[in-house]
Amino acid sequence: MGDMTNSDFYSKNQRNESSHGGEFGCTMEELRSLMELRGTEAVVKIKETYGDTDAICRRLKTSPVEGLPGTAPDLEKRKQIFGQNFIPPKKPKTFLQLVWEALQDVTLIILEIAAIISLGLSFYHPPGESNEGCATAQGGAEDEGEAEAGWIEGAAILLSVICVVLVTAFNDWSKEKQFRGLQSRIEQEQKFTVVRAGQVVQIPVAEIVVGDIAQVKYGDLLPADGLFIQGNDLKIDESSLTGESDQVRKSVDKDPMLLSGTHVMEGSGRMVVTAVGVNSQTGIIFTLLGAGGEEEEKKDKKAADGAAGSNAADSANTSLVNGKMQDGNADASQSKAKQQDGAAAMEMQPLKSAEGGDADDKKKANMHKKEKSVLQGKLTKLAVQIGKAGLVMSAITVIILVLYFTVDTFVVNKKPWLPECTPVYVQYFVKFFIIGVTVLVVAVPEGLPLAVTISLAYSVKKMMKDNNLVRHLDACETMGNATAICSDKTGTLTTNRMTVVQAYVGDIHYKEIPDPSSINAKTMELLVHAIAINSAYTTKILPPEKEGALPRQVGNKTECGLLGFVLDLKQDYEPVRAQMPEEKLYKVYTFNSVRKSMSTVIKLPDESFRMYSKGASEIVLKKCCKILNGVGEPRVFRPRDRDEMVKKVIEPMACDGLRTICVAYRDFPSSPEPDWDNENDILNELTCICVVGIEDPVRPEVPEAIRKCQRAGITVRMVTGDNINTARAIAIKCGIIHPGEDFLCLEGKEFNRRIRNEKGEIEQERIDKIWPKLRVLARSSPTDKHTLVKGIIDSTHTEQRQVVAVTGDGTNDGPALKKADVGFAMGIAGTDVAKEASDIILTDDNFSSIVKAVMWGRNVYDSISKFLQFQLTVNVVAVIVAFTGACITQDSPLKAVQMLWVNLIMDTFASLALATEPPTETLLLRKPYGRNKPLISRTMMKNILGHAVYQLTLIFTLLFVGEKMFQIDSGRNAPLHSPPSEHYTIIFNTFVMMQLFNEINARKIHGERNVFDGIFRNPIFCTIVLGTFAIQIVIVQFGGKPFSCSPLQLDQWMWCIFIGLGELVWGQVIATIPTSRLKFLKEAGRLTQKEEIPEEELNEDVEEIDHAERELRRGQILWFRGLNRIQTQIEVVNTFKSGASFQGALRRQSSVTSQSQDVANLSSPSRVSLSNALSSPTSLPPAAAGQG
């Protein structure tokens, strides 16, 4: 299915539809064109063509109340005729394409060319056998056989290049496979509620078919197009399709069109599904883009432009840009366009600017850039520094070799340049060139991007088991640097299992559930009705799944608590709901963050109206003017009574950590009918029935998790909508605040008063006075949460920029989740909108999983450091050996093929071995590293240089006096095609042995003594070390000419291994030297403050290039891998520049672009971003995520 391009998919559907069209009363085409209409047009069209929505339901053979029968043949038929709710994904890159990409690496290309020249020359025998005249610069005659074997070196280089390429390609391929798995997992987890055969069931989004009756509620992301049948107060944010950020109110008679990809911001209701998959509004847009692949994109570009112009104009000027769904209320400038590491679902972007053209360009300049993740920034910088050094070294090596040879041959020995000798000389020059390239290959750590990717991918896989579903790779590593966590209370710190434990009914405060007989019958009836009717009918209490377990709570947990209270009073809510079904409710004011209450109006048998209300007690009590007394009669309730009640009832409940909910009602006369839209008058003059205290116990593992966070230098703040006393009580239980400490607990209002100046604008200095001590923010609105997060991130109060993680579950948490460095959404309680805005989804909604994420994040950072420590030691040694060896003996002691093998073990295998170390609890005992901590600490620098000294000393000893020690022939000054010498083989073997044992040393980077600690917990590491050792034996004993090795005796092997073991002893010696004494050691790979460039500078420079990459451009270091990243960025930028003039569908561009080119080739099956790819034929080269 995945391979089918959209056009095939389309034509297939059309064929099916024409053959079966008669079975339903309307065809797919008709429904599709109906869904393209908006508002009143649509209402008129429905009236003219079908009559009303019920008629459409009849034609689709479905019942608005019972839903579809749900039989397999019926569902199958619907899928055949109307299509499936699934958009075919882009084809993944084939393995061969990935191989081709890996071959683009410039170092490898240079090597291939050199190898081919060397091969060609070895087969070319110049005329005239007597080459004696030509300089065999270093004496020694060649054997006939040896001359024949000249080709082996070239072939061996080619072979090792192939090895490196295959390994790289395989890594990319498995990474892509993982992303796809992750993507499909995220998709399978998205379920939607539909009614089938009268039962409310949750089914995966892909199973939805045309004719399903779907229940939509606050926080849903609509999975298909449909018509609104019935519901209350439904408001939808359609900005993802239309760009209008105002919420659209839906009603059967004014605007019944519900479109896929839009968000439900308020209310609830039911819709009948009319279009799914490629035929839904979102699907049509994807088809325009040709989610089927970039090839068609080029071919059909002209056509698509035309189509985009006409079609998208119909769908209200659709323009989408690479990036994430922007929450209607998130400001364009705040949207940090997340760099989507492929795992991200690519989403559509609303337009923020009303007119296109110039406004756009100005706006585009003022975007926030997504900062590179800390690690990537440091790595890019380090790689550039190392690369420059390597380039210089290799150039010098080649120059010295060439000069020495020419001077020695033509000046000292006064040999003439004979034409027949040219090939011989060229062969020498090629050999020198290969040595130079080899130095370069060894100097450049191409293992770096690999190590990062492996480490991140490995962590992400393992984090799944720890209930963290990572949507953006770099979030995992950012989490290790987190310094602050702003957490929700309900469900994250608490169990989200609400139970009523105290109540105030009929003038009595009951400390536990009252006896039903002690409550007046009238009061009881009102109470049961008020709770049963004034709650979402999807909220229920079901019998437990296992014997002895607690009853299952389904739906809104606070409402479940209240329904549980009804059951505890030995009453039942089902009969009440049965006699007043959802369709009969007259009017519903749904809960939202502004109202903080919910009310339902019903029509009584005598035509009068009654409204039931419930909500936060201090808010609802303000609106009460009466209260039911002990005999169930309303008595007057004055403000001073209210104050007394707050003191005597509500505050004591709150101080026990209970949420207080007030239940009230009000009667209205039948005529004149009240003006229901005038909310202030309606929600007033209520009569209080009771106030209940609901307990939501703290999760047992949370206090321990918070203690770990505080020990790890992470401040935990609680941001909640609850009353301040409740919040404070729970914060103390969790250990967020300790009595007697200097901290702040503020309410949202007070917080706003303190951070705003006289004009009501927020001032950063004022926030800086508050946030360091703030621990609890109560009664906060979503905007307060966003303000706090932004305030902490933008603060310059501390020398390190704060890295903030935020948890959220509601739709309104979207902006804060996006603004944060890492956004955690709740997998169970979270709405689709929250999940869409997040970086990591907590599949068990548990705070202690966040601590696991911190542990994994720190582990990634440490793994990279371990790898660097090992890698750089090898680099330093190999480069110096090759360089000095070449200068003194005109030949590198380590041959090209050997270097490539060393490069392979130290890059690929070591990155695998060191990047997969499992995390330990000790990671949580240190403070976060922060942005300015260098990647290579002093201790690591000490280790690198210390081990380099040991290795160089031994290798040079072996090089210059080795032949005497082992009584063997010297390998120095060998002629061009001489056989491999034992001498050089010993050097090579010793070198590799030292690397192997140093790999064990590299497992610890903080100067620990015991390097074997926990080594068996990492089977990959053991396998790789032993495997490398085995291969090394094979290479030395049987490698022969291609590897320039000659077999060694047992005693020589013993010496090699003994010298290698010395590394472990030497490691202990180094650990003894106190780092504090070595002030002269320079750290490397640090991001300085000045590199986080101020906004203004960034604005002038629209191209997303940070300092490190700018240096890269300057140095034109061609071979550096990051280059293709830059090309991509430039192409993206150019695309946007050229896009500004492009009219039609893309006229109104969004002002928020994002660096999501990494996703160009890893797009998700069901969502693809409409980028200005339409206006530019360039298809982006894949910048493999994680490189750069």
From TrEMBL:
Gene3D superfamilies: Calcium-transporting ATPase, cytoplasmic domain N (3.40.1110.10), Calcium-transporting ATPase, cytoplasmic transduction domain A (2.70.150.10), Calcium-transporting ATPase, transmembrane domain (1.20.1110.10), HAD superfamily/HAD-like (3.40.50.1000)
Membrane topology (UniProt): Multi-pass membrane protein
Segments of skewed composition (Polar residues): 1-13, 1154-1178
This protein's UniProt keywords: ATP-binding, Calcium, Calcium transport, Calmodulin-binding, Cell membrane, Ion transport, Magnesium, Membrane, Metal-binding, Nucleotide-binding, Phosphoprotein, Translocase, Transmembrane, Transmembrane helix, Transport
Reactions that this protein is recorded to catalyse: Ca(2+)(in) + ATP + H2O = Ca(2+)(out) + ADP + phosphate + H(+)
A GO term from the CC aspect: postsynaptic density membrane
GO MF terms held by the record: ATP binding; ATP hydrolysis activity; calmodulin binding; metal ion binding; P-type calcium transporter activity; PDZ domain binding
Enzyme Commission number(s) from the entry: 7.2.2.10
Superkingdom of the source species: Eukaryota
Pfam families the UniProt entry points to: ATP_Ca_trans_C, Cation_ATPase, Cation_ATPase_C, Cation_ATPase_N, E1-E2_ATPase, Hydrolase_3
Low complexity bias locations: 305-317
Annotated GO biological process: regulation of cytosolic calcium ion concentration
Transmembrane portions of the chain: 98-121, 151-170, 391-412, 432-458, 944-962, 1020-1040, 1052-1073
Domain Cation-transporting P-type ATPase N-terminal positions: 47-123
Subcellular location(s) of the protein: Cell membrane; Membrane
Residue span of region Disordered: 1-24, 296-370, 1154-1188
Family assignment from sequence similarity: Belongs to the cation transport ATPase (P-type) (TC 3.A.3) family. Type IIB subfamily.
Function statement: Catalyzes the hydrolysis of ATP coupled with the transport of calcium.
PANTHER family listed in its UniProt record: CATION TRANSPORTING ATPASE, PLASMA MEMBRANE CALCIUM-TRANSPORTING ATPASE 2
The name this protein goes by in its record: Calcium-transporting ATPase
Lineage, uppermost ranks: Eukaryota, Metazoa, Chordata, Craniata, Vertebrata
